[in-house]
Each structure stands twice: as C-alpha cells, then as structure tokens.
Amino acid sequence: MRYKTSGTCSSAIDFEVEDGVVKEVKFIGGCNGNTQGVAALVKGMPVDEVVSRLEGIKCGFKGTSCPDQLAKALKEWRA
After folding, report:
1. Residues in contact with 70: Cβ distance below 8 Å, sequence separation at least 6, in sequence order
2. What is the model's pLDDT at position 8?
3. Which long-range contacts (CB under 8 A, 24 or more apart) does 71-76 make?
4. How is 1-46 classified by DSSP, letter by letter?
5. Angle formed by the axes of helices 32-42 and 66-78, nearest 10°
6. What is the pLDDT of residues 5-48, one digit of tens each?
7. Model pTM score
C-alpha cells in the first residue's frame, strides 16, 4: 500500500502488512539513514505495537515526523 505523507521530507511510504504484522516499509524521500533505520526496526512487529511506539513523534518544529506518518499510515490501513 502507498500512503501519501504530509508535513515531512518524505513524500510517501510504501508498506506491506500480512496477518497484522509489518512485512516491509519503504519511505520515498526523507532522511535516508533515519528512514531506513525506522523501516528495519519495525519489520516483523505487530501493527498495533508500531503505532503505539511511533505515534506522536515530532521532527523539530514540525507537528509530525516520518515515524509519526508511518503510524498514521498503519492506522488508516487498520481502519
């Protein structure tokens, strides 16, 4: 699934979920090392845990972040 981000340097997030578990995440744009790190850390985690850990994280003065946008994407997928 592709999620169009808002308020971050990344423009979109491609992700795959199987049986409620994150299988793959790829950020389009953003801080390459950080987004690769987030993607690697959440791989294999249950969606609910990822949302719980990442939701509300801010990047500097912005009201959101790439991790927060991933949480939003997964919440939208869950709905």
Report:
1. 3, 13, 15, 25, 27, 38, 42, 50, 54
2. 96
3. 72/3, 73/1, 73/3, 73/5, 73/13, 73/15, 74/15, 74/17, 74/22, 74/47, 74/50, 75/51, 76/3
4. -EEE--SSSEEEEEEEEETTEEEEEEEEES-HHHHHHHHHHHTTSB
5. 40
6. 999 999 999 999 999 999 999 999 999 999 999 999 999 999 99
7. 0.96
